Queue: 3 jobs
Job 1
Amino acid sequence: MVNDLKIYNALDFGVKADTCCEKELENFLSSIPQDEEQKTIVFENGTYLIDATKLRKQKLYITNTAGDKEYFKDETPHLSRAPFYFNGLKNVTVDGNGAKFIIHGKSTNAVIDGCENITIQNLTITADNPEMHELKVINKGLFYVDYEIDEQTKYVNEKGKLYFVGHDYKRKFKDQSKTAWWIAHFPKDEPHFCQRTYHPLRDAFKVSEMGKRRIRVYTFTANKFQVGDKYYLYDVRRQYAGIFVPNSKNVTLHNVKQHFNYSLAFVAQNTENITLTNLDFSPEKDRVMCSVADFIQICMCRGKVTVKDSYFSGAGDDCMNVHGFHFKIVDKKDDKITVRFMHPQSHGYNAFEIGDEIEFIHPETLLPKGSACVVGSTMISEYDIELTLDKNDSAVIGEYIENVTACPQVEFVNNEIDRIITRGLLLTTRGKTNIENNHFYSTTMSGILLSDDANNWYESGMCLDMTIKNNKFDYCGENGILIKPENKRYAGAVHKNITIVGNTFKKCERACFDMKDSDNIVIKNNSIGDCPEKLITKNITSFIKDF
């Protein structure tokens, strides 16, 4: 039987506003009992300071973040740190009462690991002078471009060499300039439009300081730049994250603000039932970007994912990506198969539970060949999982499986999305999905993409029941809605039962609807504005369209 509510006040444990409180915060959270008691963790309203270099380090295998080979020689792969570490807690509400936590240095913002029935609410997490810098073009000549550096950025000039500096980093202005092609570019006349481009200093043969916060970059490609354009420079490796939720159940975030994170703003893996309401993931002050990668990444999750009444602005990848994985079968013996994580940015955890249903997927058609039930699951390496099945007659070494139990339902309702450098929503889940009453203000790629692939990112799987209703798409840099499973050979519909009704498309740079290899598509009562053409289709077996 659950006992009466127990209150835990952070102040009683020495967690005080206007002080550096990383050790006190760690001790406080580790003291919360892992029992069934109803608990509320309470912070006083105020500003709390966190020194990231003093946080406890731990290995975190966070999906879609830095792979093993992306770390520098002096770094330990997947070693991270976080000021908030909620471990194994049950029946707990964390109430920030409007508190603001400012992190000095690089870290993951929060970890919710192995928790059940946990709510985080009424708090803000941000960063002081993070490693993200804005350069604005203020002048140019035949062979030079002049930039102004934003007020938040700190830098030093050491004997003519310029470095960005922060609490725990020092980086030359030209670091990664030859390899980071996915830097964010905001054109002068379109402040809500962002696109991936090469590093603005890539072709520089000299960089000099002109005065306070102004530099001159000498280059033979000055004609490619326009006065008023803005560029955002950041470490593209996705080394940390915002809020990371592995192996949990019934997780709620309400009225949570994040103004900066080093990769994915919220990422959940192997978690059941996620509710995100009244979030504000947007930049502070005069900046227009706050997330190096996706705002929401949902991977190998179960139950239902709900995102409502929230604001998302300034992401270096999708607003939300919901997917599973295609695991490659690398061994088969008796009633066992060994399956492997195939993408270097996603591995290190067991994504299967006893009782899960799997399907055997042909990599070229992306269609199932048979099914089985998991009766045992063991992690045998960082990348490999041994599964014991009730039957494995459909298993073929070199082909793939999908865990069809780990395909959540999705509700994405009443949200505003702005300045998204790729897609608004990337969806590959079998669960019933409702996308309704959202405002997609600007996506550089498609507003919504239904994918599925077993050759590149290996993100599964097919969409079987989706409604896209009463949304506004003010600008899409590619298609409004793109249905494009990445099958190599057509042998039947991959996605099915998609209804697109009552949406408004103001402008799409490509066809408003582009779809292939799908079945039972309904398009009705949509308002289509300035698009090159309405519809492109291929292998749509059942189609109702009345735009």
Job 2
Amino acid sequence: MRYVIYVEGVDRPGLLRDVSDVISRYEGNILYSVGYGSEGIGYILFIIEYEGSPEYLERVISDVRGVHKVDIAELGPDAVDIVSGFIKGNPSAASGIAIYMHPEDFIMVLVRLDDDVRRKIYSTLPTNVLSLILPELPKELLEEVSEVIPPKTLVNALMKLEPDDLVDVLQDLSPSIRRAVIKLLPKEKIEEIRPLLAYPPETAGGLMTTSVPKYRADATIAEVLNDLGKGKYEISDIIYVVDNEGKLLGYVTVPSLFKASPNTKLERLLRRDYVAVEPMTDQEEVAKLMIKFDMTRIPVVDTDGKLLGVVTIDDVTDVLLAEESEDMLLFGGVMRVEHYLTARVKDLFKKRFVWLIFLYLVENITARIVSSYTDIISKVAILAAFIPMILDTGGNAGSQSAVLVTRALALGELTIRDVLRVLSKELLTSLLLSITIAPIAFLFAYGVSFNITVSIAVALAVLLVIMSCSVIGGLLPLFASALKIDPAVISAPLLTTIADIIGLTIYFVTLSIVLKII
């Protein structure tokens, strides 16, 4: 296993050597080491291969003369804080450390550093490290990189990427830098990525890769295997079969090629049970299709059926993560944020302020409702004690329904045509919930107020609030979907605010009626 070891001690001659000797003596293979001193303190970082107990190694290193702090963590997410802390004091070490870290882990190191430290690091990173991290960088960090690194260096790193990843990076660059980079790209690379640049990034055309093995139906297995052996395609387990005009006929799995004679033509092995999408198909719809049909890749064809490229499972995984993240933010009442640690405070302010001020204005309605029933509250003061319970119960019931329906919409289980089914299901479910919870609400209210009339009013209000908010919570995502709005926009704060208005209205109307009757 690989570990990161951080050592802090008295800055003396031979400290690095002595610690290295201990690591080697206990069968640790040192892959990388770097150190620096400041104000009489020495700071050392090791990356090692070691199969023993890290706790034991930590103890023996602590016994080295002058050492007063040792931290050991497995190389990976657990080591991020150790590495970022060391790089803050010695940015020049980042280029060596990055070689041994997974790109995702190294990005987590970068986001924990101040922007002035990051800017010192970018220009020191090897081209192969840059090429690995560029497709994964948050947009804010990619913007920083493109401002620090010359376009020529960016091009050298981008040339190592697959066409779809290259285009993803290009589309996230500022227009001026994108133009500068494209001018420096070789003509053959521009021709390769040109079809991908024609489509928005959140469509099948924007996701697809064009590095796809495709052959005519009359090609022999020997010819195909010889071409595949060159390793020039991103996809290597499936080949696609096209006609003379490039129209998709079907596919052949690579394992099946080894079961047939080398002179057999592909048309003999052709399978036509494929599902394809058009290039402008939304990425979320592509993900749903791949999940529905249990596919690891899906071909993209134009209106004439010509094969343009293929969307792979790794692209869809990224899509699902991005969509889930965005829905979570929307459901929390926050606009999309690329990465919290790198987000600017002013951007976080803008993304949160709009929702908060909107919800505040809507909540004013609840204040007006309460103020209009002050005469009832003044007569029976205990009624005010049950307002939080009524509001929370309605908000929770509505949120449950909204989450269930939003999830069903995301998985393709529901459409707007199912509105009556959702309505009937929510009515029946909420009825069962309310008649179960209402007696509990009655007992709770009586235990607080010792007033039968108040307890009946509270129980009846709880019953009506659960039913009303459940139905509204279930229907709002459907209506949002019908209006081509992301159902997640019907966020928890918005739904809770609506539930507050409904809950208060029902509560006070119910009180008014019950108190007059009884």
Job 3
Amino acid sequence: MISVLSRLSDTHTRWLCLAAAIALPLLLYWLSLPRSLTLEDAGLFQLVCHQGGISHPPGYPLFTLACQGFVALTWFDNPVIPANLLSAIFAAGACGVLFLIAEQLGINRFFSALIAVSYGASQAFWGQAIIVEVYSLGVLTFLICFYFGLRFSIDGDQRWLYCLALGYGLALSNHWPVVVLSSPAILLLLLHQSATFLACLRSVKFWLLSVGLFLLGLSPYLTLLQSNPEIAVYGPIESLPELLKYVSRSIYADGTKAATLWDKWQFSLWLWSHSAQQFGWLCVPIILLGIWQSFLRLPRLYAVSLIVLYLGTTQILNLLLSFTFEYRFQSVFNPYPVIAYSSLAIWLGFGAQHIAEGLVSRKIAGYLVVAVLLCLPLSVVFSNYGDNTRSQSAFVEGYGETVLAAMPADAILFVYGDYEVAVLGYLQLVKGIRPDVELREWHNLVLSNRMMSPLANPAAQKEKREAFISAQDRPVFTVSKWDINSVNQGLFYRVDPRPQTRSEYVAGFEPLLDLVTEAYQQELFFNAQEHELAYSLLFRFGRHYTQLLLDSGGLPADVVPRYEAVRSTFPGALATLEQLLLAPHQDNAKRALLKVADSLLLKIDEARYRRDLAYFYYYYGQIQLMVPADEEASQTAFRRSVETYPERDNPAFCHLQEHAQECE
């Protein structure tokens, strides 16, 4: 084994190990790369990469420039692949830089390559590496900065600080919040050469060069100054104050008012568990051993730096955010710590190397030790394979194509949110599907054909929108249900000033509904966004079919079993209860409605969203107010609703006796 390690440490093998650290993750990403549109921010980034424009705050100009250039220089039959592939290339590059960092920290090259591949296959990082997202570039740029800081701390050459100044500006030009939170780790490295670092800070030449290089790294932000962007969440950015406001994310809220300290505590516990899952549970004891070994083998500031790096975008970020602890926000938080998880990889390397050295000292056959340790990256791959193999995922595009295909010629379709504007916008503007349909964003976001600024007064936007709709002789549809006269057609609403009915049956949605129902029941989703889209579709069809049944007294024969399947899910049953409560009631309605509510209570474990759970308790309270009224039971249900979702838009709030006067 000693001879094996010595040969692997030879200079001639360094490039081979580095190549393996890059090539193996890249191969893994190519095999698992989605070949169709995904959710998260993929639709918006695909639009910006292909059509040009401005991504959501803070703009991510470095990624945008790279993606637009890469898309322009490459050609694939499938337009979703280039941007996804670029993210994979950045991720593989980050694995290569992690190899260099581990090597500088004294980890043998064999183990440096091993942990680089393991990090590339870790759960959250792999998931972000194969979709068009900014996190793989964020990890790459930060690790480059960490490497520059480490090299300065080792040899004190101030040229590394100049490289760091430029690299740090570029890192901030991609995703500044996660980079800033991770930066104290780099500062600790610099303090290892405190005397040399302080001497540099006293030099005017050093400041001039460093600031100049740093500003050069920030220069991509100037590309966000656009007067007529094709795609832009909040419209043009035409002045420096507007740019600073956009980059600061001051117009882009993270979190909810309903979040409490209990939510932060739950997220804190979840982050420890989530961290343990990144490399699979087999690696957890090796990582813990590696933390101990890092304090024995490294200078104290280096070891502390790795701790600080881990805490930055995990526990410290949790303190800064206001997320309610539920499925939706767990998925949102999922990619934030990908930089922090590089510390886990380094600790894995120290732990694995210590185990190998111990086995060698006990004269265990060297090749057997190598074989056992090679199982580490393989175990990581197999642990995360099911979560990240998305080459066959086609659910999202299938939904969007079904909506567009159902539109009549020259229709106007109002869309809103990632599931609508990003998906349908990509299909039309990038893939060229149904160019005759005019897509418009309900709140004047994202698309360039906005009626006015999305930051304008909501009342003014409503007046402008209503005037536009009333002047149309073309059919107008909305995907979401808004406060406007319309007819529910299942996947969307047909705007009608004088509707004769609440719902109209439209054939052709059944294949999508069957796919969604099966996927929901078997939990065949890759993330919370896909689950939430399916959840909303089941709710839509639960509402639609119940309205059809109540209004016409029957459903088409082939719809009946599908309605039963929809009602067997929590969202479908909740929508059914909602519509039954809105219907005229006879004297014995309470008993029947309580039976429906009690059956829904059996599905309560499916209620992953606090708002919908709160509505269930609200509906339950409404039922208890029916004859014969049970005031105590209704107040208990309303109170439970408000405790679940303590926002003023919860209708249960005004039904509580202690708040009744506030709502008058």
